[in-house]
Amino acid sequence: MPIHDQGYKRYGGTRSHGRAWVVIFTTGVRAMMSNRKWIALMILSWIQFIVRAVQFYIAANFSQAAIVAPSAATFRDFFDKQDLPVFIVTVWLGAALIAQDRRANALQIYLSKPLTRIEYIFGKLSILMAFLLFITWVPAILLLVVQVVFAGNFQFLTANAYLFPAITVYALVEVVMVSMAMLALSSLSANSRFVGILYAALIFFSDAIYNVLRMVTGSTSVSWISLGNNLAQVGDVIFRVPLRYETPWPVSLAVVVGLVIVSGIILERRVRGVEIVA
């Protein structure tokens, strides 16, 4: 039977512009939710919510327990205590998001379909962001609801009306910074374990350098060197609590924004259908 070469033909199917990332997102979420260990981690990440809810109940029903009454600082501290679950989830899930595709040479397959690089990156990013928001923003907002229910009135919510936007803004800042940084690192290697180590080194090494410089200078004005400290400084401003470092908060915000931009540039250069060797 003769084979006739028809040459190149333009794609004749329908294109779902801007929505192709949803397939990547739903597939990634389903894959993680079928993992029992992952589900156990999600449950453990909500332990602090349960502890805080009990604290709110005691404060609302026993006048002697006024010392544990909620405040803006309580919600700020909630995010601080969630740093460990956020770190574990980021390393466990984020390290393999792009590295796994690079190891399997799947980028060529992804980008050969009606899928743009932006849609691919956003699809991968949305998976990590969704789980991180589930263990930060969702329980924090539910704590506000719990406080109102246990108190039986809206006095706390009325006096601290800024808490809802503060929780939302800080959760987004934290999740975007962490997710972008991890995704950029994941695009640099095909070894997810190496990516996880690299992310941990980035966090802990920058904090170690800060501690050394703080002891040498006797000042916390060098806190901008630590990525975690910058995020904490921005969070203190958002929640209107006293700043913990002498570094001006606009400097810390600039570092956070700079990290997101650099991560975006790395992703733009690394996520390609064909490796370009100079």
Please report which band the strand proportion falls in: under 5%, 5-15%, 15-25%, 25-35%, 35-45% or over 45%: under 5%
Largest sheet: none
Summarize the amount of helix as a percent range.
55-70%
Provide the succession of SSEs.
Answer: HHHHHHHHHHHHHH
Rg over C-alpha atoms, rounded to the nearest angstrom: 22 Å
Kindly name the structural category. mainly alpha
Distance between the termini: 43 Å
Mean pLDDT: 89
The overall number of domains is: 1
Number of strands: 0
Which regions are unreliable across 5 or more consecutive residues at pLDDT < 50? none
Number of helices: 14
Structural shape: globular
Structure description:
It is a single chain. 69% of the residues lie in helices and 0% in strands. With 278 residues, the protein is mainly alpha-helical. The chain is globular, with a radius of gyration of 22 Å. 31% of the residues are buried.
Provide key terms for this protein:
278 residues; mainly alpha; 14 helices
Which helices and strands appear, and what pairs or packs with what?
Layout (H helix, E strand, L loop, with lengths): L20 H13 L2 H9 L2 H15 L10 H10 L1 H12 L4 H5 L3 H5 L5 H19 L1 H15 L3 H5 L3 H24 L5 H26 L9 H12 L10 H22 L8
